Amino acid sequence: MGELAPRDVVSRSIFLHLQKLSESDPNRASDRVWLDLRSIPPEKIQRRFPKIIQVCQKWGVDVFKQPIPVAPAAHYWMGGIVTDLQGQTSIPGLYAVGEVTSTGVHGANRLASNSLLECLVFGAQFASLGKSFQRHDESISTARSATKAIQADEWQKDEAVLERIHQALPVLMWNNAGICRDAEHLESAIAQVRDWRYGFDRLSVTRTLTSLEVGVTLSLPSVRIGQSIRRWAETQNLLDNAYLILRSALFRTESRGGHYRIEYPHTDPNWQVHTLVRGEDWLRSQPIPTQEFGD
Ligand SMILES: Cc1cc2nc3c(=O)[nH]c(=O)nc-3n(C[C@H](O)[C@H](O)[C@H](O)COP(=O)(O)OP(=O)(O)OC[C@H]3O[C@@H](n4cnc5c(N)ncnc54)[C@H](O)[C@@H]3O)c2cc1C
Fold first, then answer.
1. At 182, which CATH number?
2. Which of 7, 28, 95, 271 fits as disulfide partner to 87, beta carbons 3.0 to 4.6 Å?
3. Among the three residues 48, 70, 92, which one is the final residue of a domain in this structure?
4. Which of 103, 106, 113, 115 gets mutated to test ligand 1 (max ligand atoms within 8 A of its CB)?
5. 93 and 48 belong to one structural domain
6. Alpha-carbon span 186 to 292, nearest angstrom
7. How confident is the model at residue 147 (pLDDT cuts 50, 70, 90)?
């Protein structure tokens, strides 16, 4: 199927090709794979890919005259927070739509354009939520009772730690949970993420924010402190997501769609299940009928 093969197959082929080149000759470590649009009539490129033209121009690549350097990408997971068809999660009043959810519209791979359609279709369900959504919102706003002031210099040391995690985490994930995975790398990445989470929990900013009672309003002395809190929350979410991805990838001892285990390169019919994560428990769902997976 060449370049029209499923995206995990194309990504893996590029990845393995580049790996083979750099192993055979270290000088070729920076070699690239190219996407050549020159066989397509220029007016068609202009009509169909205006954004690609723009982005390439920004990086000094003229798509009409030269091939485009491309890199393989990994979808770290297919799935997310389980919701019903109205977007309701298992927490009353909490709804989720889009990339963050597991609604059942994706199989072991993401089909082209399914993701954006999912946002539209499931987002439209919110029109029918009406009163129950509003009532929950009101109960939160009436709970606000006290204000807590945050000191400006309290978190400076912590900010450096958050920044270090922010920079190192994507690299760790790409190297250990990217296009090709194996137990050894997954286990060492899990140990690293556990370490970071342990350190994160002991930061002074974490202790302050997690000791706040629900409904307390924060008084922030500067915009910068507000940004720090956002960075803190993002870091916590990234660490949680990284941990879920790594543990789930280690749990599934087969290859299926975007998940490729070097030691288990084949799809195993016994694994035709969803992975369910509850707290620290990794479970298998009931077997899923074949037709749900598509191709
Ligand atoms: C490279 C790439 C190519 C893709 N190609 C396609 C395609 O061809 N067809 C297709 O259908 N799908 C495609 N997808 C998938 C599709 O783009 C996504 O599934 C879709 O955009 C998800 O939309 P979303 O609103 O759920 O999430 P997002 O678009 O990720 O939106 C989440 C928003 O929340 C914001 N946010 C995050 N944290 C916080 C916070 N703490 N507070 C406030 N805001 C926050 C983020 O800044 C972001 O704006 C592609 C995705 C990628 C990465």
1. 1.20.58.100
2. 95
3. 70
4. 115
5. no
6. 28
7. confident
For ligand 1, whether the C-beta of 113 sits within 6 Å is: yes
CA of 174 to the centre of ligand 1 (A): 19
pLDDT for 25 beyond 70: yes
Ligand 1 touching residue 112 (CB < 6 A): yes
State the total domains in the chain: 3
Q: What is the pLDDT of residues 211-232, one digit of tens each?
A: 888 888 877 777 878 888 899 9
CA distance 43 to 49: 10
Share of the chain above pLDDT 90, in %: 53
Instruction: Decide whether any atom of ligand 1 lies within 6 Å of the 98 Cβ.
Output: yes
User: Ligand 1 mean position to 197 CA, how many Å?
Assistant: 25
pLDDT tens string 248-264? 999 999 999 899 999 99
> Is residue 151 situated within a structural domain?
yes
Rounded-to-integer distance, Cα 244 and Cα 277, Å: 8
Q: Is the CB–ligand 1 distance for residue 71 below 6 Å? A: no
* Residue 269: inside a domain: no
Residue 115 CA: nearest ligand 1 atom is 11
User: What's the average model confidence in pLDDT over 42-70?
Assistant: 95
Residue 229 burial by Cβ neighbours in a 10 Å radius (0-12, 13-18, 19+) = middle
